[in-house]
Each structure stands twice: as C-alpha cells, then as structure tokens.
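Regression check, S-adenosylmethionine case 426:
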Amino acid sequence: MADPRTGLAAGAEVEVEVTGWAHGGLGVARHDGQVVFVAHTIPGERVRVRIRELGPQGRYLRAEAIEVLAPSPHRVPAPCPWAGPGRCGGCDLQHIAVDHQRVLKAGVVREQLARLAGTEVEVTVEPLGSGAGAASRTRIEYAVDAAGRAGLRRSRSHDIMPIDECLLGMPGVDGPGVLDRGWPGATSVAAVLPSTGARVILPEPTALRTPTVTERVTAAGMTHDFTVAASGFWQIHPLAPTAFVETVLGFLDPQPGDRVLDLYAGVGLFAAFLAEAVTPLGQVIAVESDPQACSHAKGNLRAYRNALVVPGRVDDLFGVPRPKRRGAAAQRASRPRRSVRSGLIPDRADLVVLDPPRSGAGPGVCRAVASLGARRIAYVACDPAALARDTAYLREAGYALAGVRAFDAFPMTHHVETIALFARQP
Ligand SMILES: C[S@@+](CC[C@H](N)C(=O)[O-])C[C@H]1O[C@@H](n2cnc3c(N)ncnc32)[C@H](O)[C@@H]1O
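Current build output:
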C-alpha cells in the first residue's frame, strides 16, 4: 500500500536529508512532509533510501539507507566485520564514532525528558572505562540455527547469521568452545564470564538447572559478592555495577538509621551496599518478583540482619493495578492479585531505589512510592522514555527531578542507562 501523503510504497527509492535522531537509534528525515525513519544513518547525512514499510495509520515511513551520498564527519568504518545494514542486528551504531554515539544518546535522554515530562535538563552520557566500545560485554546470547550453528540474528529478521567472534565480548567470553563448535538441538547458547571464576556456557533448552556464578563488586570502599543465576539478570558491562552503585549511593546519601526500599531488587546489588551504609540502626527492604533472584538475594544479604527480601511484584505488594497489556490473556495476567497493600511494605521510608524493567514503574507504583514520603528516590532506567513518563508521574505526586547521570553501558548499540535523582518538594 502506498503512503497517501507521499505516494511512496515499499521498495520505492528517494533521496533524503537526515535531520534528527530518534529513540531507538534511527535517523529522522522528511519527505514531502512525511517522517521517514532510516536505520544506519547519522544526522547531517544525505542518503538514498529504500522504503521498507508504512507505519501504523500512515504516521511515518520506515526505510533503509542504500547509499550514503554525503557522509557525516562522525561516520566510521564499522569495527566489526559482521555489522551493517542487513547484517548482524546486535549493534546498530557501529557506523558512528563512539564519542558521537554518546552525544546522540544524550540527546535522546534529554529529548524524552523534555517531551514526556516537560523537564529541560542537561545530559551527558559518560563512558565506562575507556569507553572504546569493544570488549564491553560479559554476557552474550547467540541464537542457534537448524544446522546447530551459533550466530546472531540479522537486523530486523529472524535469520541467524553464523559469526566467528563478537567484537563486544570481553576476551574469553565467546572464544573456543562457543562459536567454533556445533550446538545440535539447541535454540540458543549463552556465554557468561563472571568477575570471579570460570566462564559458563548455557545451551537452551537444557535439562540441567541453571548454574550460578559469583559476581564481586567493589564500590564506595565496600566489597560484596553476589550469587546470581548464570541466566539471571546482571549488568552486562563489567564496570556497570560499580558505577551504578556509586551513583545511587551518591544520589541518595544514605545515613545510619535510614529505612530504604529497594524496589525491583534483583539479587540485591543495591540492597547490600545500602544495608552496610545505613548500619544496623537502619533497614533495607528489597522487593523482587523472580523467585530464583529472591532466593539468591536472601543468600547475598544473609550477613545483614537489617535487610529483608520481600518476594512479589511491586505493584501487587503496593495494592495497585498491574499495568494494562494488550490481548485477553495478557489482560487476565495483568489483573492485580491483591487490591490491598501488603503488610510487608512499610507506610514510610527515608529513601527509595527504583530499578524497573524496560516498561518502567508506571503511574500506580510511582504514586504509591511517593506516598512513602522518602526524602530522595534514585531511579535506575534502561529506557529513557519509561523514565520520562515516570518522571511526570513522580512530579505530579510531589517529587522533582534533582539530578541525572547517564552511562554508556551498551556501547555500539542505541541503549543507554540513566540514573535519576528525585527529591521531595517542600
Ligand atoms: C533491571 S533489573 C534490576 C535488578 C537489580 N536492581 C540490579 O541492578 O541487579 C529489574 C528486576 O526487576 C524484577 N521485576 C520485574 N518486574 C517486577 C515487578 N513487577 N515487581 C518486582 N520485581 C520485578 C526483575 O526480575 C529484575 O530482577
């Protein structure tokens, strides 16, 4: 079907000027007044594109660049031979100099906060370590094709492209034993290189129980070991846990005697450092829905009698409706299990950490968190749009955005981690 505004249909080729940058790592161009999102481009470039599809209700077009007519000074040859249009979909920004990747990501965080929360803030995306981009992942999951070969999915496709090495893997993650052999019968194989101990290789499906690894984190002069399922949630950048813990502690400034709620706590990364900082006079309540992560969190926090792990969904425990999801089955799953607040959640807290999944905390949880009256909230966000929506809900509930730091925890991809500080308004 042709776009009514431009008359362009899938397969048509046009020349456009890329003038903007969208959340999701896409260049933004206009053709006859219509928005065209183009992958693998950079603002400032003139490119020839092929229209791929029309967006919902004809609101925009999606296209792919087939020729760069006037390149940006920030364009570089992709360091990885597997990257590029129609090739590995793992890294979408390899064609951009890594320092400029950070400039574009900072623009996305700034723009989302301005558009969705009406808040103007300066944002810098800070590199982790050298910021070079390569060797920045301790965890890689490969898809396995019908012939048992491990590889990565092609950009916007279910096709699996066998590769011999992923540039982003830390040395030793995907070397011999992962990509140089077949995985017959597997659908995926993950390689995990923890900060202590040997690499773990996890083919799926497997009849075996997921092994655990030990991650050691030193931050703000304290060191903690964390047991985590090799397939469970842990930051993939080796320097991210330290940087995030130090940022959260710096933002919250925990004091002896404080009561802290660590919501979406995983295996207790923030809770362990906070339990030490608030001393036995204070208390940390860590809330996590994944039963395996909860059981690891309990073990990881064993030394702290002032730390309590509460298993369950944050929204259910606060007695607020689960966020709406599409589809009847999803709607049923979205129904709150409880409509009353759990007695395990206190009425008051001094400090709160929020580290929700990509969808964000949502209005109900933000309001419930605000009602605790905490003096500060640290919000760790992997999606700047979700952070911006929740910033608006928190502001309505009496909390102002008081600080933002963003980190390049996923170089070569459009992803960015943002940590925001909210302070209670007088
Ligand atoms: C981004 S991870 C953060 C984990 C931890 N804070 C860390 O830094 O390691 C989000 C965590 O929230 C958990 N989670 C997802 N939805 C949840 C919910 N509705 N209530 C409680 N926990 C949830 C996930 O299992 C996951 O462990």
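Comparison notes: The pocket of S-adenosylmethionine is lined by residues 233, 264-266, 269-270, 287-290, 293, 313-315, 355, 357 (CB under 6 Å). The domain at 209-424 is CATH 3.40.50.150 (Rossmann fold). No diff flagged against the previous build.
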